[in-house]
Write a structure and sequence with these properties.
This protein has about 800 residues and is an alpha+beta fold. The chain is built from 28 helices and 20 strands. The strands form 7 sheets. The chain has a 5-stranded antiparallel beta sheet. The protein has a 4-stranded antiparallel beta sheet with strand order 11-8-14-15, with no helix packed on it.
Length: about 800
């Protein structure tokens, strides 16, 4: 279906449905209209507030209109206060009182009343600013900041007088709620919590099997078990958090500077660091005082042509390490003393001099001032940088000062970023202005100290946040986003990131590409000993629709810390562990990794795989699998490969008791129990081109995730940055460009077209009714079944023109706020 068909088909679909009812589509259509109603002024910005407007406000206006002096009732401390004054007509400077005053000929009205009036160029800047919609970053204010946080972490005691809690975070939250007279939110349902946790921690939607298993879990601590299980999935964790760190560290797989060698990737180092959960202090030391693999972050971009003095590589270094690791905006101070905080030109150049290969001349607003920068850390009370040392030794000194326990700003900054990522807003807001006061200073310092006490283990902090009662509660929108009036009410609803959305659509439509762009070379990768196996028939080809069950039993003295099964089957398979259904695979070219940890037990364990050969005539068939487990991340994997020793059977009986091995009859999904087991399955030497799949392992398998492929137009419109600059937060508002790409874009249309074909094929193969088809789509996309009204509407529309109708159904589902938002 082309984009043209998308519009026409969707419109016709909507009209047809309204003959039945409009309630199902109303939410979707309102959501789409919200996209289109975005103020387009942002796209028209041609003014740099920090450099063009802020100096004028400070020099010409602040004395009379800020910090307790508000002549004429006008406050210029924030954009919101200026707009509320009624002196601005957004988008029209000619109707704005502020503009009339700065251009007036009347000496009684002209502003400023004293000193030189604005020049013609300055007046033009004001006019452009107003016409552009008054762009003014939320973190910038003319009001002097009186809050001053000590550099060292403060001792925080749990407020235990409010009653016992399972998680220390909840002590601080409950105290905050009591102090501010806030009612605690209700807990999430099992389905909603599973969806939130898996998206936040791994970036993926839960599968229908995971939803059913978690819902049926009766353990009191099942939430904690779930979180631990998710965080133990090292590959999925690393793939997901690559996006977060790629944004922060300006790392990408293509883009400016890579062709001429002026920029260098750190992809392999970064991914491996996430796989092994490298302690954060070591992680940062290796970035600042780098190895050959991690040197790309501090290297900077060699911009072509003439660039501002503030954009040379040493100044990029100064700006980037300040922003990423300390929450300091050093960009303004790279040109002149900052207008928004206390950082000075010498601070920016002091950091830059640490990495500079040659003497660094200081420039103020691109004009040299006749001085040479000397190496200096931003917090001299922690120690000095010896400027006489070679560059490598200066960087080593800096890496140690940055990560010393006395630098509370370092630990506070990263836990604040993780809190923002998990809950939708930082304890300190914005996250790059760590000089601002947190809405809970005790909780901020507690999390920072806890991170240090746990050896800078970022997974520990994520586990602590995710296992808190407040994280497991329903989301609530804040009463005000203004920092002065903001009150924390609970987790905020978040939009899926570009990568989360794309991964979800790829999974729903089966449209993921076959390769990744991230160059990942797993250490010590070698061919597995796993073999393709099938029943012991002598011929390579097997009957169409043949079903073979495979079984492998093994004993464990203790429960391993990590356990996985990687499998694929020509054509499809379902995996049970100790009679519990765990995973399935329906595309033999894409191996599936299942986490077995929560399904194993000390003693005897049994894995059974149902393998199905599809087709209408005899054809090659085979299963290949690898079971891996280990007791710690430092040990080698113990491996059980599929081979001739695996048992197999073609026989089944109705699920009504124990099978011959005495296993419980928990086979409701298959409705059968295998029996008649035989030893020595047949090894098959070749299954088409599948031989390349034997080089997989839990930490090396190149699963196709959006975080590991180069950005496309859809991902960019959904907020994925080009990463030429540090990006610590992505836009959380909807844009017109997103609406166009989601409603009429060719990329999404092609994916959904592939999805329609996938679901039609699945319906034919499984002999699903239309209702069963809709149920399967909803379970995959929304982790639930459709309600009666939704089912009636969708059954009505897919009666005719099946392919286009199913494509429209998929489009409607992925447009739902329920799909795109993380509640």
């Amino acid at each position: 279906m082309t984009p043209k068909h998308r519009i026409n088909g969707s419109r016709a679909f909507g009209v047809a449905l309204t003959r039945k009812t409009t309630s199902f589509l109303s939410l979707t259509l309102v959501y789409i209209l919200t996209f289109l109603a975005v103020d387009t002024a942002k796209s028209q910005e041609k003014i740099d507030f920090s450099h063009d407007i802020l100096p004028l406000l400070k020099m010409k206006c602040a004395a009379c209109h800020s910090n307790g002096v508000y002549k004429g009732g006008l406050s210029l401390e924030t954009r919101e206060q200026l707009i509320k004054s009624g002196n601005i007509s957004l988008g029209n400077h000619l109707k704005s009182e502020v503009f009339s005053r700065v251009t007036s000929d009347d000496p009684e009205e002209i502003m400023p009343p004293e000193g030189a009036p604005l020049t013609t160029a300055e007046i033009q800047k004001v006019a452009t600013w107003i016409d552009a919609g008054l762009p003014w970053p939320a973190e910038i204010t003319l009001k002097k900041q009186h809050f001053k946080r000590p550099l060292a972490l403060r001792t925080t005691n749990l407020p235990t007088e409010i009653g016992p809690k399972d998680n220390p975070i909840d002590y601080f939250i409950d105290q905050y709620f009591q102090t501010n007279n806030i009612q605690s939110p209700e807990l999430l349902s099992d389905r909603s919590f599973l969806r939130r946790a898996k998206l936040d921690l791994l970036g993926l939607l839960p599968t229908p099997i995971e939803v059913a298993t978690y819902k049926d879990d009766k353990r009191k601590n099942k939430n904690l078990k779930l979180i631990d299980s998710l965080l133990s999935q090292n590959r999925s964790y690393a793939d997901h958090w690559m996006s977060f760190w790629n944004d922060l560290l300006r790392n990408d797989y293509a883009g400016t500077g890579y062709i001429d060698g002026g920029r260098k990737q750190i992809t392999q180092w970064l991914h491996q660091s996430l796989l092994e959960n490298k302690p954060y202090d070591q992680f940062v030391r290796e970035l600042i005082n780098p190895t050959a693999d991690s040197a790309g972050f501090i290297k900077g971009i060699k911009w072509r042509g003439r660039v501002n003095a503030s954009q040379i590589e040493p100044l990029q270094f100064s700006q980037n390490i300040s922003q990423v690791f300390l929450g300091i905006n050093m960009k303004c101070a790279s040109c002149h003393d900052s207008f928004i905080d206390d950082w000075r030109l010498e601070d920016a150049y002091g950091l830059a001099a640490i990495t500079a290969q040659q003497p660094l001349k200081i420039h103020r607003c691109d004009i040299p001032i006749g001085q040479t920068a000397t190496s200096k850390f931003v917090f001299p009370e922690l120690g000095d940088i010896d400027h006489s040392l070679p560059r490598e030794q200066r960087l080593e000194q800096l890496s140690k000062l940055m990560t010393t326990h006395g630098n509370g700003r370092f630990a506070r900054t990263i836990v604040n970023r993780l809190w923002h990522r998990m809950t939708g807003r930082g304890l300190v807001h914005p996250v790059d202005v760590m000089a601002n006061e947190a809405w809970s200073e005790p909780l901020l310092d507690f999390l920072a100290a806890d991170l240090i006490e746990n050896d800078y283990n970022l997974k520990h902090t994520l586990q602590l946040i995710a296992s808190s009662k407040i994280y497991q509660s329903q989301s609530r929108s804040p009463e005000s986003t203004d920092a002065k009036r903001y009150r924390f009410l609970g987790v905020s609803t978040k939009r899926m990131t570009a990568e989360q959305f794309v991964d979800a659509v790829w999974n729903l439509s089966g449209s993921a590409p076959n390769k990744i762009d991230a160059k990942l070379i797993p250490p010590g990768q070698k061919k597995t000993g796993a073999k393709w196996i099938w029943s012991n028939t002598p011929a390579l080809s097997s009957p169409a629709q043949e079903i073979v069950y495979f079984r492998k039993s093994f004993s464990l003295e203790t429960l391993p810390s990590e356990a996985y099964c990687i499998a694929t089957c020509d054509n499809e398979f379902t995996l049970w562990v100790n009679s519990k259904r765990v995973s399935e695979g329906k595309n033999w070219t894409q191996p599936v990794t299942a986490n077995l940890h929560d399904h194993l037990k000390p003693g005897r364990n049994s894995i059974i795989i149902k393998a199905v050969n599809q087709g209408n005539a005899p054809n090659p068939a085979g299963l290949i699998a690898e079971i891996l487990f280990r007791n710690s991340s430092t040990e080698n994997w113990q491996v059980i490969n599929s081979n001739a020793d695996w048992e197999f059977t073609n026989q089944t009986i109705t699920a009504n008791g124990l099978n011959q091995s005495g296993e419980p009859a928990d086979w409701a999904a298959a409705n059968v129990i295998p029996q008649g087991w035989k030893t020595y399955a047949a090894v098959r030497s070749s299954i088409g081109s599948a031989k390349a799949l034997v080089e997989q392992s839990p930490n090396s398998m190149a699963t196709t995730r959006a975080s590991l492929v180069a950005s496309n137009l859809l991902m960019r419109s959904l907020g994925r940055p080009n990463r030429e600059q540090v990006v610590t937060t992505r836009p959380d508002s909807l844009s017109t460009l997103q609406a166009l790409d989601l409603s009429n874009g060719r990329i999404l249309a092609n994916w959904l077209n592939m999805g329609a074909k996938k679901w039609i094929e699945l319906q034919k193969k499984n002999a699903w009714s239309d209702q069963q088809l809709i149920n399967e789509i909803y379970s995959e996309a929304l982790c639930r079944l459709p309600n009666a009204q939704e089912l009636e509407l969708l059954k009505f529309t897919i009666q005719d023109n099946k392919s286009e109708a199913i494509e429209d159904v998929l489009w409607l589902v992925v447009m739902l706020p329920e799909f795109q938002l993380i509640h």
